[in-house]
Amino acid sequence: MSKNLEHQFSMLVREVRKEFVGNGPKEISTRFVGNWAISEMKGNLTNVEKFMISSEQGKQMVHEARTKMVKQIYKKAEVVNKFEALMGAKVLRMFSDINIDEDIAMTVFVFEQSIESKGK
Question: How far is the CA of 62 from the CAs of 20, 57, 83, in angstroms?
């Protein structure tokens, strides 16, 4: 059951990224630890972004745009409500970053209560 809920969470992350960024990650995995949902995403960059990161300035621009954009997405009430409905718990905060060179992003959702046992 836990893997199923983690999978549903991953699919929701992909759906949100696709809706607001234009494409979702190629691979995504989510793990629940205490009151955290940790999503690791590989294959996030668009073809234009891949072209841009050939310069140091381009890397900085893509990194800044990606991190700021994602943080703005998760401030939207309609997005937060989807995650809270799925998990049955309130989202307190979210942390996100991307490693441009490896094309790996991590997002950590912090819930008001433990979610680890929800799927067990």
Answer: 16, 9, 26
**Sheet of 27-33: strands edge to edge?**
27-33, 36-42, 104-111, 91-99
Its pTM stands at: 0.89
Supply the DSSP symbol for 116: G
Q: Which residues form the domain of 77?
A: 2-119
Cα–chain center distance at 40: 7
- Enumerate the β-bridge partners of residue 29: 40
Contact 80, 92 (CB under 8 A): no
What CATH number is attached to the domain comprising 29? 3.30.980
Q: What is the pLDDT of residues 35-84, one digit of tens each?
A: 999 999 999 998 999 999 999 999 999 999 989 988 999 999 999 999 99
The DSSP element (H or E) to which 16 belongs, if any, is helix 2-21
Integer Cα distance of 17 and 3 in angstroms: 21
Q: How many domains does the chain fold into?
A: 1
Sole residue written with tokens 């893509």: 62
